[in-house]
Amino acid sequence: MGDCSFLSCRKCYFQFIHPFFEDEKAFDDYSWTKEYTEKFDLYIGPAIFSLTKKIEAVEKIASRNIRSFLDVGCGNGLYLHAANVLGIKNLGTDIDRINVEFAKGKGLKALAASLENLSLDDRFDFIHLKAVLHLVKDPSGLLLKAKSFLAPGGVVYFDVPNQGSLFSRLRMLRDRASYGQLQLPLRRGAYNYRCIKYLCDRVGLRIAKRVFIYPGNKVYYPILGMKRLYLTVFRLFAIFRISSFIGFYLMDNKDPHDGR
Predict the structure, then answer these.
(1) Which residue range forms the structural domain that includes residue 242?
(2) How far apart are the first and last CA of the chain?
(3) Per-residue CA distances from 144 to 75, 94, 140, 203 (Å)
(4) 18/250: higher pLDDT
(5) Which of 115, 158, 159, 189 lies in the 20 to 30 Å Cα band around 245?
(6) For residue 232, what is the domain's CATH number?
(7) Is there a domain that residue 259 lies in?
């Protein structure tokens, strides 16, 4: 495809576009968050519900209360607002400067910076990376940095588009300008469970829980006005583990508070 190639790692099956280039300006006013920004007030309720359920899952995994929250790729700050409502100390970070300014305009604590470049004294019980990992050049570096900000017994959550999904396979057939979830200019890495497991082992994080996510899922992918037929089909894909997104809750392998 032009001057780029679709490649796959023989060891872990991670798929990527080569050469990888990055332009942080491309993420300003990131298109994926536009609806959530334009309908910010309408999405407040769904965001509170989503974060509440995620925290319930985290507290069950960690066997303790969650008091602090770091949202990596916080965008317009919906989850930061939800954390405020829930009474949880929070901080957000994103390289999308336009959305960070929007969040700040809502009185939310957000930084226009990449996590890799941050130096923080705080440690967090729950670190949240929603739809981030497939956009970065160095996913293991990002997860290692997130791990360094974990409080003892804390949990990292992330989700990514599922390269092993039926949707991705169909896209490979009909769209020769992309390869499933590999889509220029921004989606330059694609994951299935095998490469996620390899990545987590490499950075010393244990998968405590895996979830199969679909558009319209109230906890992991809230969308207003989703048609019932589509919702039913997407839910069936999740039941059969071929959903378009997969999510993971992780704990530090060496954490003495890990109650396995």
Answers:
(1) 32-252
(2) 47
(3) 21, 17, 6, 6
(4) 250
(5) 115
(6) 3.40.50.150
(7) no
